[in-house]
Design goal:
- By secondary structure, the protein is α+β, with helices and mostly antiparallel strands.
- Among the domains are: 105 residues, no CATH class; 102 residues, Chitinase A, domain 3, CATH 3.10.50.
- 47% of the residues lie in helices and 16% in strands.
- The protein is built from nine helices and nine strands.
- The strands form two sheets. Strands 4, 5, 6, 7 and 8 form a five-stranded antiparallel β-sheet that branches.
- Strand 1 and strand 2 form a beta hairpin.
- Helix 1 crosses helix 2, helix 2 packs across helix 9 and helix 4 crosses helix 9.
- The chain starts with a helix and ends in an 11-residue tail after the last strand.
Length: 299
């Protein structure tokens, strides 16, 4: 019993560093003993039941109690700030349990703060720097290709096939407007945007090319034309990247931008939480009380 009382005293001293040490047995009713108070919210002894398992050392007990109380205070400080800055509509979370309500309030406040203060401009230099420093994170899981293809119904005289084959097999005319115009009238399906990457297996699910070795096939074939199931398939390969090679920056630019913004959000929120806690500490907005001599052991 004496040991437990000593631990509680030590915890209070740790949390009240720089303040005059005191003890208060503050009871809101005949049953509940207050351990800490912050902006009119109270942490009760019953909230700490089971926090410290049996046979826990004195040092570990102090650590657990100290960490839990400090975490509770930081949360109450953040809740108070959020409630003070959000309008009544944002705080209208009736019929929700308190913890769920508090989580929603904090989320709303953090979102408002992000919308108001987060710098969402990510420069090309920042993207390039992140890409160079994290290339190992951008390995391809699939072989990617830049490709144009045309799927035609087989024609009796072969004129359509000949016209498309001439245009599609010549890389200098691949992007000419007349290919697109002809495709509109004669093609069953087509893809002519060679600036966008697609997975090779996505291509082969549309165009039934048999590829046993992607590297060997793509090195040897820039244009493929074949007939199957009453259709003519023509494919022009413009570029390719093999599985496990590094994604080009153009392919991952949007992902990198999202990662950079996510890091900014996290850093901004952490700075805000720390500043609020330190201000509340300076203003003596919270107090930690010593409860009964029973340390909060598991039952």
């Amino acid at each position: 019993m004496k040991k437990l009382s000593a631990i509680i005293g030590i915890v209070s001293l740790l949390l009240l560093t720089g303040c005059e040490y005191f003890q208060k047995y503050f009871e809101k009713n005949s049953k509940e003993v207050v351990v800490a108070e912050c902006y009119g919210k109270y942490l009760y002894e019953s909230d700490l039941v089971g926090l410290v398992p049996e046979n826990t050392s004195t040092l570990d007990s102090i650590q657990r109690v100290n960490t839990f109380i400090d975490s509770w205070i930081r949360r109450q400080v953040l809740i108070h700030q959020a409630e003070s800055n959000l309008d009544k509509e944002a705080l209208n979370l009736d019929k929700q349990v308190e913890e769920y309500r508090n989580s929603l309030v904090i989320f709303a406040y953090e979102s408002q703060l992000i919308n108001q203060k987060l710098d969402t401009v990510v420069s090309e230099d920042e993207i390039a720097e992140y890409y160079e420093q994290n290339k190992e994170d951008f390995q391809l899981r699939n072989t990617m290709v830049k490709v144009a293809y045309i799927i035609l119904n087989e024609d009796e005289d072969g004129k359509q096939k000949a016209a498309f084959k001439k245009l599609m097999s010549d890389p200098d005319t691949l992007l000419l407007q007349n290919i697109d115009i002809l495709a509109t009238y004669y093609a069953v399906d087509s893809r002519l945007d060679v600036d966008q990457w697609i997975r090779l297996d996505e291509l082969t699910s549309i165009v039934p090319i048999e590829i046993f070795n992607a590297e060997s096939f793509l090195k040897k074939n820039r244009f493929v034309c074949f007939d199957m199931n009453e259709h003519t398939y023509m494919v022009r390969f413009v570029d390719y990247l093999l599985e496990e090679s590094t994604s080009p920056m153009e392919m991952v630019r949007d992902n990198i931008k999202s990662v950079i913004l996510a890091h900014r959000k996290q850093a901004m929120l952490e700075r805000m939480k720390t500043a609020l806690y330190e201000k509340a500490k300076r203003d003596r907005a919270f107090e930690v009380y010593v409860g009964s001599p029973t340390l909060y052991n598991a039952d």
